[in-house]
């Protein structure tokens, strides 16, 4: 995203729509006299005599008693350092520019190779003593309309503090001629004797939605071939549709009006297979289960059953291990066998992927834990109860692994995007949304239209799984570009590493995987005919 914060031409729109800071060129003001008037610069000198005894009438904002402190704000802006965005605080109360060792460790690998020794081993603040381990020079780029302002301050690295971001003290404020103006349009100026650049401050904090979005955008994937103007137009659309993204303490949405309802083809009393006990658990497995339970519990995906609630159906779950990593598996096999099927059609991947092969721009978006954003009807929650050593829990959101989840979610998406799919620029496969076009102007418009549909129904998109404006990407198990449709070699290599199937149970998933790529294999039916015969019950493997 480093290109997205660079300058733009004079013909562009108001830069406040695009940037965190605004530039304007103005003549240097010469300060000669004391004038107690609002907005007029004041000369500060010990030689001046007090000429007035009445109360000051220069307030721009009259504070409420006991609330004056809310009008004070840090001078904080977002700058570019080493092709990444970082906070810069203009600190008029500190004589040296500084950064903490902790912040460098978290954001700048191998920063210690750039460290210079310093004679001063400690610095004093108003209330404590801070230890220095040296100094470091970092190139700081402040974005503005007519070209970036490039600063190269030497910062003291503090060892025993945990400050976030870079702090510019009065040392480099004097060297660069940085002046702070606390008038109505609060800003700073950076300049020489002939001219100054005014930078209007826009507050960015951890609670600021725009700040969160800009920080979260670093998790998304953006095409490296996009021009600066293309990135800016995309950023504007993403900022406009911020509510569509999973950002904040409660990132998981809940789709309105589409709760799933399950129907069983068996009446009470339910068969024993629907009342299964928990699997045996080792101490290591119990620790993993506790971690897996706490996350959906905090996200309101499950709730714990009270001691006075009647429990008729229970599903156990287990932890599987592979290469030292654990995975939660819900054993809904018995419940699925007794659930009436939802026959809603799911698109064929081959048809969907063929449409993408000729597109110049492709964007892929993914719903954050898509199934878990779908509610469950109250009378169906009692069917979705899992148990372990911690007790019995009930799904209040649609879980992964139940029989009708994919068909139900596909139906929701088709209801949300009927025109977009018919117009031929969107492919929806369950919780994957793919947008494609031949021109960038159409592409940005399509992304805007798609994102605007998510907010009304409270469906959230995961930026970490989004890929914007690509000319080539992995989608629906294929490597798609404007020139070709190829097989994802990562999936092929994973199969090649497995051993040769030794029985029907191992052969069936292999044949299913091969069939997924049948369009890429000549005379596929002839080659696999013998394999299909081996999957028959009448043939000895």
From TrEMBL:
This is Reverse transcriptase domain-containing protein. InterPro entries: DNA/RNA_pol_sf, Retrovirus_Pol_polyprotein, Rev_trsase/Diguanyl_cyclase, RT_dom. Residues 324-479 form the Reverse transcriptase domain.
